[in-house]
Specification:
single chain, 122 residues, DUF4296 domain-containing protein, elongated, DUF4296, mainly alpha
């Protein structure tokens, strides 16, 4: 009987390989990085342009990358569950630095302030 329970527990443990199944319209990692970088830069524009409508900027960015808000959200949840979101966010940070090298000082300052904070929460 003990062997049966041991076998059952082993089977149960190995059958749960993935936490979440990939969505049907999964956005590629590279595209996710580009979208997140664009969203971050759009958000920073609100400090320069007072009446900027972020909804329109977000819709334009999604349309430009030929994806939808729902696909982005589902893909973000999937990449978070699989642990791949950290590399995506690091790539997004590199994209921001390529487009705006002056942002490097700000990012380094924020990293020093938030050393123990996970990447997605910075």
């Amino acid at each position: 009987m003990k062997k049966f329970w041991l076998l059952f527990l082993a089977f149960f443990a190995f059958s749960c390989g993935k936490l979440i199944d990939p969505p049907k319209n999964l956005v590629e990692k590279e595209t996710m990085s580009q979208l997140i970088a664009d969203f971050a830069m759009n958000e920073q524009l609100t400090s320069v342009i007072q009446n900027l409508n972020l909804d329109n900027a977000t819709r334009y960015t999604l349309k430009q990358k030929k994806t939808t808000g729902k696909a982005f959200t589902e893909s973000y949840k999937y990449y978070t569950a699989t642990g791949e979101i950290e590399s995506i966010l690091n790539d997004a940070q590199k994209i921001v630095l390529e487009k705006d090298p002056a942002a490097k000082v700000y990012i380094e300052k924020r990293l020093k302030e938030n050393r123990n904070v996970p990447v997605f929460a910075r």
